[in-house]
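Reviewers of the previous submission asked for a worked example of the structure-prediction workflow described in the proposal, so we include one complete record here. The input consisted solely of the amino acid sequence. No template or homolog information was supplied to the procedure at any stage.
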Amino acid sequence: MKKAVIESGIVTNIIEAEDDFAPDGMTLVPVTAATQMGGRWDGAVFSPPPAEPIARQRRRMEARLDQFRIALAEAGRLAAVETVVAADPRAAITWEYGGTIHRNSPLVAVAAIAMTQAQMDTIFRNAMRVEI
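From that input alone, the workflow returned the following structure tokens.
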């Protein structure tokens, strides 16, 4: 039977164990459909792990510039971004010759001038899914 190992109310491991397996000092709870690593156990029900903070997600987001341009075009934002980028010499050079772009890069900050952070996050997630 699969059991969740609980430490301080958090699922830290999921193991295969006999029904009568109960080592001293270890809290084991039968796994349900709601059990997830990092999830919470309140003594009665499992809940999902907390969402990763958006700032941490943004640090890991990267895409090729062609993917980014396609996502901007699909969102109807490419022409506006190209106009803004052309006005900034450093951004224009990166836009023209760069290879990979990171969500927290200065170029994205320039490109996001007329967008909310959430809109740019969506465009960036879409860019990371573009296959060429």
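Residues 2-47 form one domain. We consider this example representative of the routine output the project will generate in years two and three.
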